[in-house]
Amino acid sequence: MQIVNPRTMETPNARMDSLATPSLGSTELCTWRVTMTAGTEGPVHAIDREQVWMPVTGRFTVTADGRTEVVETGQSVILPAGETRQIRAHDGAVEAVVCMAVGGFASIPGGDDRIPLPWAQ
Predict the structure, then answer these.
(1) Mind listing the pLDDT tens digit for each residue in 54-102?
(2) Domains and CATH numbers, the chain
(3) 8 Å CB contact between 102 and 30
(4) Three-state SS string across 73-90, please?
(5) Secondary structure class of 119 (helix, strand, coil)
(6) Engineering a disulfide at 106: which of 15, 43, 56, 115 sits with its beta carbon 3.0 to 4.6 angstroms away?
(7) Where is this region: Disordered (predicted)?
(8) How far apart are CA 71 and CA 79, in angstroms?
């Protein structure tokens, strides 16, 4: 057993608190908490690993491969690997927990770069 203190990173769109990652001792799964203020949105991107997003407070809008859904507290959304997506904080602040397998990279549609997710390492 290992107790972990979160590691925090911020982007212009959100704050990520790493909860379980390889650098924090996890070998198979990564989890982090995302906090977004009302009206903010992440970039349009894809992740090469399946992700599960679970809002803890508030709600967010997910657009994935042309389909848009609102995800409420108490629900979850499963985003398949490679699916282009964008996450938006809905009408208030949102906090969500995200889980995925270790080793994921992001990419921007039309680009060839594999971008590491620092909060998942």
Answers:
(1) 999 999 999 998 999 999 999 999 999 999 999 999 888 999 999 999 9
(2) 7-120 (2.60.120.10)
(3) yes
(4) CCCCEEECCCCCEEEEEC
(5) helix
(6) 115
(7) 1-20
(8) 12
